Amino acid sequence: MAYRLLIDGELVDGASTLDVINSATGAVFETCACADEAQLEQAIAAAKRAFPAWASLTHGARRDYLNHLADAVQARSDEFCTLITREQGKPLAVSRIEFDMSVGLLRWFAEQDLPLETIRQADEGRVLEQRTPLGVVATITPWNFPLQQLTLKVAPCLSVGNTMVAKPASTTPLTAALFGELAAGILPPGVFNVIIDAHHLGDRITSHPDIAMVAFTGSTPTGRRVMGSGAGTLKRLTLELGGNDAAIVLDDVDAREIAPKVFQAAMINSGQVCLAAKRIYAPRPLYDALCDELARLAREAVVGDGLEPETQIGPLQNRQQYEKVLEIIEEARSLGNVIAGGNALNREGYFIAPTIVRDLPDSARLVREEQFGPAIPVLAYDTIEEMIERVNDSEYGLGGTIWTNDAERGLEVALRIQSGTIWVNKLVELPPDLPFGGVKQSGIGRESGLEGMKEFTQAKIINLANKVAA
Ligand code: NAD
C-alpha cells in the first residue's frame, strides 16, 4: 500500500483501509491505511517513549531535523501539490500557495527558540521563566488545508521538544501520509506518528491519559466535543474553530474596484477557508452596484477540476459539505434574491456554481451560520453603528476584512469588531510570525508566532536568591 501509517518510525499498513474520493469526480481514486485502536495505542506509546530524548536535545539539534524535513518536503513539491488538489479539490495554483506556506512554516519555526528568560533581576537574586515541552501532543486537523494545517502544528510542536501523534481528516489523509513517509526517514522513531482514521478514533485521542495536549482545528461543534472529552484528563487545548467573517465595505470606495477583492476573499478554495469572507456588508448607496459586480464575477468565474490550469474555483471537498451548502442556498432562495449561481453543476463531482444572494434577512442561515462554500450573502447597512452591531451579533469571531480609502476610519471600525484578526485593505494574510486565532466560539488559544509556539509549552518560574538568607 502506498499511503501508510507512521508508528514508531515504521510505515505500516492499517488494520483496515480507507477509500479516498476525488471531489472533482466523486469517485474513489486512492486507498490508504486506516488504523484501529490498538495501532493508536502503539503510536501514543511510541511518542511517549521518544519524548525524553527528543525533549533533551538542544534546540539547534531539533532545528536541524526540522530543516532537513523541510528540504525533503520541498524536494517533492510537485507530488504534494497534485496530491492536495486531488484529495482536497482546490486549483493547483492554490495548492502551490498552501505548499509554499507549509514549507515556510517548517523553516520559520525551526529557527525559533524559547530560551530561558530573566523576568526579574536584583542584587540579591533573580526570577527566571523556563518554557518546557508538555509531552505527547495530538494534532487533529481539518480537510480544507491538509498540509498547511498539519505543518502549522508540527513545526512549533516539535521545535519546542514535544513528540506527536497526528490525525488528519478522514477525507484528506493522503498528504499527511506522504508527509509521514518523509518524516520516517528523518526524525527519530516515535517523535512523529501518523494515525489515519475513519472518524472513529477522535474521542479516544482526546480523552487519552498519555496525551498532554490536543491541538485541534475543525468546526465549532467538534471543538465543543473535543473540549468535553479532554476534561477528564485536564488536557491542554488549542481550539481553532469555525468563523463567519464579515467583509465590511465603507462608503468611500468604488464598488467596481473593491468587488474583485471581496470576491476573492470569499471564494478562495470555494469558500472553504476558516477566514474566508462569509457575509458582505455594503453601505446602501453602494449596495446595488456591489451586488451587480459580485454577481458578474460569480458568473464569469471558471469552475472546474483543480487539475485543469484554467480553473479558478474547484469543487466542494466532500458530499456532506456539498449537501449542506445546497441546503443553505435553498433556504436563502426562499428568503432573498439569488442573483448568480444558486445551483449544483450538472456534472460528476461536488460542484456548486458561485452564488451571490441579496436582500436576505439577518436571520437567514446563509448569514448566521458558517456556510463554508461558494455562496455569499450581500447585506445593506445604513449606519456604521448599526453595521458594527450586526457584524458582532454572532457566536463566531475569527477574522474579518474592511475596505476603505481612509485608513483611520478603517482602524476605528477595526477596533470595534469582535474577532481575532482584522485586515484593513488586505486579503487574508497569514505570515508565520503573527499570532492567529479566534475569540468567542471561534476558538481558544493562538497559532503561529511566538505566542502560538508558547501554546505547546508550559511556563516554569524559577525564583532564585543568591544566598540562603541569614
Ligand atoms: P470537523 O470538525 O468535521 O473535523 C475536524 C477534525 O476533527 C477531523 O480530523 C475529524 O476527523 C476530527 N473529528 C471528528 N469528530 C471528532 C471527535 N469527536 N473528536 C475528535 N476529533 C474529531 O471540521 P472539518 O469539516 O474537517 O473542517 C472545517 C471546519 O474547520 C470549519 O468550521 C472551519 O472554519 C474550521 N477551520 C478552522 C480553522 C482555524 O484556524 N480557526 C482553520 C481551518 C478550518
Nutshell version of this structure?
This protein has 470 residues and is of the alpha/beta class. The protein has helices at 37-55, 59-75, 77-88, 92-111, 146-159, 174-184, 202-207, 220-230, 255-267, 284-300, 319-335, 365-368, 384-392, 407-414, 449-454, and strands spanning 5-7, 10-12, 16-22, 27-34, 117-122, 125-133, 136-140, 163-167, 192-194, 213-217, 236-240, 245-249, 277-283, 337-340, 355-358, 375-381, 400-403, 423-424, 443-444, 457-465.
What does this structure look like?
The active site is at residue 240. This is Aldehyde dehydrogenase domain-containing protein. One of its GO terms (molecular function) is oxidoreductase activity, acting on the aldehyde or oxo group of donors, NAD or NADP as acceptor. This protein is an alpha/beta fold and 470 residues long. It has two domains: 5-241 and 438-462, 3-Layer(aba) Sandwich (Aldehyde Dehydrogenase, Chain A, domain 1), CATH 3.40.605; 246-424, Aldehyde Dehydrogenase, Chain A, domain 2. Helices cover 39% and strands 22% of the residues. The protein is built from 15 helices and 20 strands. It has helices at 37-55, 59-75, 77-88, 92-111, 146-159, 174-184, 202-207, 220-230, 255-267, 284-300, 319-335, 365-368, 384-392, 407-414, 449-454, and strands spanning 5-7, 10-12, 16-22, 27-34, 117-122, 125-133, 136-140, 163-167, 192-194, 213-217, 236-240, 245-249, 277-283, 337-340, 355-358, 375-381, 400-403, 423-424, 443-444, 457-465. Strands 14-15-16-13-12-17-18 form a seven-stranded mixed sheet, with helices on both faces. Helix 12 (365-368) links the parallel strand 15 (355-358) and strand 16. Helix 2 (59-75) packs antiparallel against helix 4, helix 3 (77-88) crosses helix 4 (92-111) and helix 9 (255-267) crosses helix 10. The N and C termini lie far apart (70 Å). The model has no long low-confidence stretch (mean pLDDT 98). Bound molecules: nicotinamide-adenine-dinucleotide. Nicotinamide-adenine-dinucleotide (NAD) binds at residues 140-144, 149, 167, 169-170, 199, 202-203, 206, 217-219, 222, 225-226, 240-243, 274, 370, 372, 398, 438, 443.
